[in-house]
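<backbone_tokenisation>
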Amino acid sequence: MIWSSPWLIGGFLFVLLPLLATIGLSFCQFNGTRAPVFCGLENWAALFDDSVLGLTLVNTSTFALLSLGLGTIVSLATAVIIHQAKFGATWWRICMLAPTMTPLVAVGIIWRWALNGEYGLVNHFLAWFGIDGPSWLLDANWTLPSMVLISIWGIGQSSLVLLIGLSDVPQTIQEAAQIDGAGAVSQFRLITLPLVTPLILFNLLVEMMYVWQTFAVPYIMLPGGGPGRRCYFFTMYIYDIAFRYQRFGYACALCCVELIVVLIPLFIARMLIRRLPIVPHAL
């Protein structure tokens, strides 16, 4: 108990207490300067008449699905390539994790410059091949795909988890399959992929929480959500409600909605994961 007390105190001060305060303020009118005034379910009732809330939920859900799908494919492919590398494995691991250590504000500034339609690095690179690049951040058809591609920037941690899982696949099973005539693709599909599936699902759960909290990069690159507000995400709306309009009570109600939206899929996915015969019950 003595050794765990710092963690318990930290969890109470920085997790449980803010959570309870957020729930409590969601039932109040609070502008940040005057004392909160209890208003009952007024903030919660306003959620059902908020058209912007529906827009941000659709935008964030679409971004999450595309980002998680593409990120899972790329992180798994990256882990397989590094696992099969004959030399420089340590160097490749460092390169894989380096982008995740870059501050998100810097990431947003770098990509805002790189995707500039006139002098950006991406369009300059495409021009070498005779391709006229679009205005990535000014065209409503390209803003969301741009944000999805940028989300690949932080797949290093997911790739590292999958790389560890690939290293734990028993070599004896693969050698037996190879003796039986199974090719590389068959070995991956029938042996490797089923064994790392729990880690893939674990990554999806973790990344889903991060994706729903995406804020810094899109807020810097596309203030207001960009053309057509295609990239106006849920966290950006919470920030604007709280700090632009000083409606902290309503912002807390929005935070509770986000918590519910994230927790329900997490609990469902956790139940599905536990049904897998190769998943430890600790999950």
In short: The longest helix spans residues 51-84. Residues 279-283 have pLDDT under 50 and may be disordered. The two ends are 23 Å apart (CA to CA).
